[in-house]
Amino acid sequence: MHTYTKKELMALITGKLRRNFGRDVDEATSLHMFKACALVLRDIMSERQMQTQDRTTRSHARQVHYLSLEFLMGRSLMKNAYNLGVLEPLKEAIEGLGFSAPELFESEPDAGLGNGGLGRLAACYLDSMTTLDIPATGYSICYELGIFKQKIVDGQQVELPDNWLGLGDAWLIPKMDEVEEVRFGGRVEDVWDEHGHHSIRHTGYDSVLAVPKDMEIAGYGTEHGNVLRLWDSKSPQPVDMSLFSRGEYLKAVERQALAESISKILYPEDNHYEGKSLRLKQQYFFVSATIQSIVRKHRAEYGTLRNFHLKHVIQINDTHPTLVIPELMRILLDEEGYGWDEAWNIVTHTVAYTNHTVLAEALERWPQQLVIDLLPRIWQIIVEISNRYQAELTTYFHGDMSKVERMAIIWGGDVRMANLCICACFAVNGVSALHSDILKREVFHDAYLRTPGKFKNVTNGIDHRRWLSECNPQLDALIKECCGGDRYLLDPDALSGLEKYKDDSAVLERLDAIKQANKKAFASYVARESGIILNTDAVFDVQVKRLHEYKRQLLNVLHIIYEYQHLKEDPNFMIVPKVYLFGAKAAPGYYVAKRIIHLINSLAATINADPICKDKLQVVFLENYRVSLAEKLMPASELSEQISTAGKEASGTGNMKFMMNGAVTIGTLDGANVEMHQVLGDENIFLFGLKAHEVSELKAKGYHSYEYYMHNNDLRAVVDALAQGFQDGVSYNDLAKRLLFGDGCPADEYLLLADFDSYRNAQKKAADTYLDRKKWNQMSLMNVARSGIFAADRSIRDYARDIWDVPVRDLSKL
Length: 814
Prior knowledge:
Layout lengths: L5 H16 L8 H30 L3 E5 L3 E4 L2 H8 L2 H10 L4 H7 L3 E3 L3 H15 L4 E6 L7 E5 L2 E5 L4 H4 L3 E3 L5 E5 L2 E6 L5 E6 L2 E13 L6 E10 L6 H5 L3 H4 L1 H7 L12 H30 L5 H4 E6 L6 H12 L4 H8 L3 E4 L10 E3 H7 L1 H21 L4 H7 L2 E2 L2 E3 H8 L2 E4 L2 H11 L1 H6 L4 E3 L6 H7 L2 H10 L22 H26 L8 E6 L8 H17 L8 E6 L7 H19 L7 E5 L5 H7 L5 E4 L11 H7 L3 E4 L5 H8 L5 E2 L4 H10 L3 H7 L1 H12 L8 H8 L11 H20 L1 H13 L6 H13 L10
Parallel strand pairs: 1-4, 1-13, 4-12, 13-14, 14-18, 18-19, 20-21, 20-23, 21-22, 23-24, 24-25
Antiparallel strand pairs: 2-3, 5-6, 7-11, 8-11, 9-10, 11-12, 15-17, 16-17
Helix pairs in contact: 1-2, 1-4, 2-3, 6-35, 11-13, 13-14, 13-16, 15-16, 23-34, 24-25, 24-31, 24-33, 30-31, 31-32
Cofactor: pyridoxal 5'-phosphate
Catalytic activity: [(1->4)-alpha-D-glucosyl](n) + phosphate = [(1->4)-alpha-D-glucosyl](n-1) + alpha-D-glucose 1-phosphate
Keywords: Carbohydrate metabolism, Glycosyltransferase, Pyridoxal phosphate, Transferase
């Protein structure tokens, strides 16, 4: 593996500046410099990827295709340099050319092609698949505007466009010779020739071109290279010149605008027909282009699709890419002329499904009329799949239509995407042990009884190289000293070597000093960005994740109100000073989530302005939470809030990042917290709250939140304060009523009041423990030492062994 020197990189960067931008170094701006560095790394990665492609073609290896509507890649310059082993010489080269390396890295926009955990997971998995030498390609949409930039104005979320492509397109390689055509609407007719052969004629459709833009993916410590293929939508006729020449300018570009709207923005609002239509178009556009591309290359290599399922596995990340099932059927039936049974055999041995949610509202359903209008041929195929499946189910369940109804693909005017996945995919996996168990026991129980072998578990994992080594260099250095060098970077289980230092006061004190340094660094960043001065002598208690009611940011807020009320009564109430840090984006149409953001900011303004709270209690909402902000925050965090209602969070990955950086978790037994508790034991985590089965039992017998309110004076005072509001004069009576009486939903649907006392006690225990510095640092050390199991490399090995049936790189010989 060639290692590049500072001198070589300076020459390569200078060459890029001259050839691509017509600039000498002394004329170049930081924008030119960033793009030149990106292009240099891109060339190295392209060379590796082409060699990987040649090896894969020669060996006829089985390939993995990972389909996800989200890939939250974050920044790439530093990450790619790190994986390629050129980070230090690149920094030296940038400085040697008269630029600041930290400023250049910081100038890169996040590639925000995702919404949260789903997209971040997909990005981590691409890194691990490449590091483990699996021939794999990720597929998504090249959104012009990714997840919105969040601005807080008067305490409320305002969404601004996030145009990442200005600098981000330096990583993208357009492949104009691999454009695919995707068809919408039109009419479908059956055609029979004189020999009685049947075919399909599709007419009157609208075409959209899918232009692939490839992002190279570098693995760590390997020559292997993979690709993330992002599809950009274009009109086949950019401008109608006849309309333009008649002066009808807007109409002339209308078709172009409609086509390009498909890749304009991540997740358009779907609370109206146009938004639903655009979202369904996005999903079909992305899977149709993807499967056509895979098929085209396969046919060129093998001349037949009869062995397609032996050479490819398609993993669909949540239900968004489900239409790949009928689309592959369409190609096999209509373009290849295969019979139904042969086509179905290929499809059902190719596609596997990862489920990410137990929430009924998140299991996608599409109005059947929308599918008929937009995708007439796909509708016909779904109907055929549905009819055959329903007939099988009716026989299997001896005519018990209540079970058939739950499992049906088309029912009540809806097309149910999760049920289509359950029917057609050869494997269905959850993303934590608890989540997979709930899928089998509740969500897909009847399907599990019918095909138990189909159901698997692959607990999520994170890219530990990015989320520990790269973002927490001081902790990385300590681990390398204690665990025999950098072995843990390719063998995360080696982190367990830290355990033997559990009683070593020098190591514990150094761990404490690293945390303090990281807190100060993060506080400096916050001060620069917002002018807010964080109290670094306080415990950093952090809850950062998507804003959703089941994640219970509101429970955290209720407890802060409780602490504030008692602090006002007794200035010595807080035995440990606390800084509560929140970061969250609410979906633009999610009214309650936006109200909770407003509430957090109202409460923060009141507490931070009250002299009695000075150096004791502080609340800060971190604006525009994103990957690059998380990379700064995780190393500084001390108490990790993972407080979702038990049975609601599929897994979580933020919980793993906090753990790996030495934060101690306060949480419920939900998602991957369950497995974290298994490896940590009771003594290294602060557990509270009802367990998943207790939640079900309480709801079954009738949960009355009002009773908790009436019988607990502290809780009543908190909810009353919520209803009254804070110093900005905004009342949150709507949220209080939602907790006590419901609002078109059950009162306190996520059991905040039921878990309040238990949460309060766990917070008290955490504060008491924090005072015992040795004990806290031991807990922190054990969290790092036992986090190796939550590395994405382990997750990908599980997929490769249990679902994909592909070999992985043997790291034991390194």
